[in-house]
Automatic annotation (TrEMBL):
Protein name: BTB domain-containing protein
PROSITE patterns given in the database record: BTB
Pfam families: BTB
Source species, domain of life: Eukaryota
An annotated Gene Ontology molecular function: DNA-binding transcription factor activity, RNA polymerase II-specific
Entries under InterPro entries matching the protein: BTB/POZ_dom (IPR000210), SKP1/BTB/POZ_sf (IPR011333), ZnFinger_BTB_dom_contain (IPR050457)
Domain BTB: 29-76
């Protein structure tokens, strides 16, 4: 197949929708967040791209590791 250069105006939104669908289907998730005893599966790369807290946390815990992580977060 041929690789396209550049992106269409809606490309970013399409990527985000696909990532969310993958998360909902528990596909390619590489972290579990425990919040008030409830597990929420997620993608480390998405969390780190949107939060300095998670970026720092994953860097400290060896984000390059292929092992799945479980992080417990305190509720409000």
């Amino acid at each position: 197949s041929e690789c396209q250069r550049g992106t269409s105006p809606g490309h970013g939104l399409t990527v985000l929708k696909q990532l969310n669908e993958q998360r909902k289907a528990n596909r390619f998730c590489d972290i579990a967040l425990l919040i008030e005893g409830e597990e929420h599966r997620a993608h480390k790369s998405v969390l780190a791209a949107n939060s300095k807290y998670f970026q720092d946390l994953f860097t400290e815990k060896g984000a390059t590791s292929n092992q799945e992580a479980v992080v417990e977060l305190a509720g409000k």
